[in-house]
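// run 5 | inverse folding | seed 20
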């Protein structure tokens, strides 16, 4: 009987020591957040525009980590989809839209601006500058084209304009097949 009680006491102490060790390890070695979601979030454009159907880039990153589609971010476009696909080692998908929208920026028609600052408060990337009761303007290099400044404007003085392609996006036009054939005939 005493050997049974001794065995129970030893097992109880062993369980308590193991539980304490596991509890300490859980607190000490805890991972804050989802590391995959953090990596995905770092690849997203951080516009917080909600065009993906989520409240911002962080919730969308968590949804992707949980298995949602990687092709719902119009501001990120094909480059972001490709980067996320490489990170997750999956096949890249086409953007979940009719076509990838051209890069756009907000433009404030300054004579119509009343200086209400509602657009400044709505901008997630601080691309709009101005003061109360003064004209506002958009820093085009900072604007992500998220459209969040349009709705709060009480005088509708903000419009979205397509950016013209810059030197990095420009491509030589391909010649038509007829021109190539006539060039070969002339060379012969």
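// decoded
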């Amino acid at each position: 009987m005493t050997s049974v009680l001794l065995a129970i006491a030893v097992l109880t102490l062993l369980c308590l020591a193991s539980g304490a060790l596991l509890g300490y390890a859980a607190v000490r070695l805890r991972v804050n957040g989802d590391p995959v979601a953090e990596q995905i979030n770092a690849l997203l454009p951080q516009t917080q525009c909600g065009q993906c159907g989520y409240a911002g880039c962080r919730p969308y990153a968590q949804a992707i980590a949980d298995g949602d589609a990687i092709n719902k971010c119009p501001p990120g476009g094909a480059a972001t989809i490709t980067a996320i696909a490489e990170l997750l080692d999956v096949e890249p998908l086409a953007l979940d839209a009719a076509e990838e929208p051209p890069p756009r920026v907000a433009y404030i028609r300054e004579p119509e601006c009343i200086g209400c600052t509602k657009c400044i408060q709505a901008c997630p990337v601080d691309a709009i500058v101005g003061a109360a009761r003064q004209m506002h303007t958009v820093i085009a290099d900072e604007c992500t084209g998220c459209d969040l400044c349009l709705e709060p404007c009480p005088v509708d003085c903000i419009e979205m304009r397509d950016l013209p392609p810059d030197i990095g996006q420009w491509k030589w036009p391909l010649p038509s097949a007829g021109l190539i054939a006539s060039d070969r005939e002339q060379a012969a």
